[in-house]
Structures are given as structure tokens and as C-alpha cells.
Write a structure and sequence with these properties.
Layout lengths: L3 E5 L4 H13 L4 E3 L10 H13 L5 E6 L3 H7 L7 E3 L3 H9 L5 E5 L5 H13 L6 H10 L5
Parallel strand pairs: 1-2, 1-3, 3-5, 4-5
Helix pairs in contact: 1-5, 2-3, 4-5
The protein binds D-ribose.
């Protein structure tokens, strides 16, 4: 599998460390784009950095963690080709891959516990976009035509 980027703000800093450790143990190549301390910072700075890298094709996928996952997903979805999903259950994680081809997973450290976050991450990593034409057509329609 290609390299995966991960980033968080201070609100997601501790969960990010757990997810990085797990992905390393699973043999995945993960690049941590920060934040690198739990000092207060602005989530859009990290969401933009990761989403820009995914949009430009430097990473195939990315994971963003903040307090809720919401600010990260709103910001990441401003970037062309980025389909970021804020997820807090395993069913949605799988469907985000199968029906929406979500290439960025967002979670909230203040929403999900570490065990659930790991299961969500695994479901999203293992999920595959459904190749059925209706899903391919719908995902293609997500992108604004003038971009
Ligand atoms: C930071 O306090 C918090 O607002 C941020 O982590 C995130 O939840 C925003 O969506």
C-alpha cells in the first residue's frame, strides 16, 4: 500500500500518536505531518497541509484528527480531489470507502475512544471503493465541474 499521511491539532495529538504506532505495527508507511506537541494550534493549518498533499498526489490517503473531526473534514474538503469523511463508527468508515471513495478519514479524539478509533481506522483502511457504475458515477459528480 502507498504511503499514508496523518496530521492533527492539539485536540487530536494523543490519538494521532496511538494511530501512528498501530499503523507502523501493521507495516504501513505513515508520514506524520504534525502537530508535534500538545500546544494549542489551529486545525486548518494541519488540515490544509495534509489535504494539499493528497490533492497533489503526494499521498494516496490521509488521516486527520482533531477534537471532533469536524473542523478537519470541513477544511480538507476545500481541496480538489479530496473526499474527507468525519466518522465515529465502523459501518460509516466502511461505507465511506465503498460508496464515497473517501481518501481522507477524520476522527475526533473527544468523540471516540482509542479502541473504537483503531477499529474505525482498520475498517477504512481495509475498505475498497465499490466498482459498481452507479458509485463511480456519483463519486465523479462530487467534484465541482469548474475546478
Ligand atoms: C480545538 O479546541 C477544537 O476546536 C478542534 O480540535 C476541533 O474539534 C475543531 O473542529
Amino acid at each position: 500500500m502507498s504511503r499514508i499521511a496523518i496530521a492533527s491539532d492539539h485536540g487530536g495529538f494523543h490519538l494521532k500518536a496511538v494511530l501512528v504506532k498501530a499503523m507502523n505495527e501493521w507495516g504501513l508507511a505513515v508520514e506524520d505531518l504534525g502537530t508535534h506537541t500538545d500546544a494549542s494550534c489551529d486545525y486548518p493549518d494541519y488540515a490544509h497541509a495534509l489535504a494539499r498533499a493528497v490533492s497533489q498526489g503526494r499521498f494516496q490517503r490521509g488521516v486527520l484528527i482533531c477534537g471532533t473531526g469536524i473542523g478537519m473534514s470541513i477544511t480538507a474538503n476545500r481541496h480538489p480531489g479530496v473526499r474527507a469523511a468525519a466518522v465515529s463508527d465502523t459501518f460509516s468508515a466502511r461505507m465511506a470507502r465503498e460508496h464515497n471513495d473517501a481518501n481522507v478519514l477524520c476522527m475526533g479524539e473527544r468523540v471516540v475512544g482509542q479502541g473504537l478509533a483503531l477499529e474505525i481506522l482498520k475498517a477504512w483502511l481495509d475498505g475498497r471503493p465499490d466498482p459498481d457504475a452507479r458509485h463511480v458515477r456519483r463519486v465523479a459528480k462530487i467534484e465541482l465541474p469548474d475546478r
